[in-house]
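Feature request disguised as a bug: please show the residue count (381) next to Mannose-1-phosphate guanylyltransferase in the output. Example input:
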Amino acid sequence: MNTQKMVEPGLVAADPLNRFYAVIPAGGVGTRLWPLSRAAAPKFLHDLTGSGSTLIRATYDRLEPLSGERVLLVTGDAHREAVCRQLPEIADANLVLETEPKDSGAAIGLAAAILFVRDPSAIMGSFAADQVISPVEKFQDAVREAIYTAATGKIVTIGIKPTHASTGFGYVRIGAPLSVAGAPRAHAVAKFVEKPSQEIAEEYLASGEYSWNAGMFVAPVDLMLHHLKANEPALYEGLMEIALAWDTPERVEVKNRVWPTLPKIAIDYAVAEPAADAGDVAVIPADFSWDDVGDFAAIARLSSAKESKNVKVIGDGARVFTEDSTGIVVSDTKRVIALVGIQDVVVVDTPDALLITTLAHSQLVKKAVDGLKAQGNTDVL
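Example output, currently without the count:
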């Protein structure tokens, strides 16, 4: 792997685009995609749509035209080898390895702190590694607008235009337009709202005043850290201690000592929501297609895999026979799978675990994972 330090400290340029650094948090197991996604091989390491690229590779590729080599990737220690195989471009100094999960506040906060120590004028953009986005050009246009808006002193979220009344996403209420050069769609954020009930979600959709909160943030690193310090001072102090040692020989010792002591909190609660209350958050309403591939129903919807008589089949060499059936089969074995007279089925066949459910119940797969964990069957998780 390339060990040359890719991020040069002290980079200052008039154009905010030249101060942009991409941050890719790659965490979470994706329990609703078990047994395909597991702790040792989470969903971002898989090609779940048949595109030919894993989710993390696709994330890097759509950010690279904007950031170049200015990319930090935050992931777990256990995923280092797999991530480096898929993204050999990431410099060692820009690979941030968590010794244990600490939620997005610590993950994104540490990236902000490292960048601040290297370049206090940096503008960071955080984009999760497990999302499917198209067309890429519309995404990149929205990020450019977010960068120009962030340069005016704002934390900017990219809001996704809702396509249906989803109860699975948080929402952003769009406020008054902002006059930002290079960002005609920039608006103030009136407020963040949590995942709503079906009735409330339908009201949001009908009003046209809300976007989905996709968890994409673009912000000056000093402003991110300002709000982190104000709202989570213990987390801020710990992250800054690690960041100050990051580009020194003490990196590993300090990280291993401090990281386990950090509080767990989502970046939304630690920074975004308090910053919105302070009037420091803007939104770029975007109209590209976005999905976080949260369950097998999403894979069935997004995958370009071939269909066998109305059943989508994913897996090299999968041996599937269907008759009067619909749904999706994901196979990692050479076992013959025959479906006869069954509708909207989900079958996921791996060498040591078999899942059978329906598209309508795919969100409940997490309960199977919780149950197996409670029974002590952790070898398949």
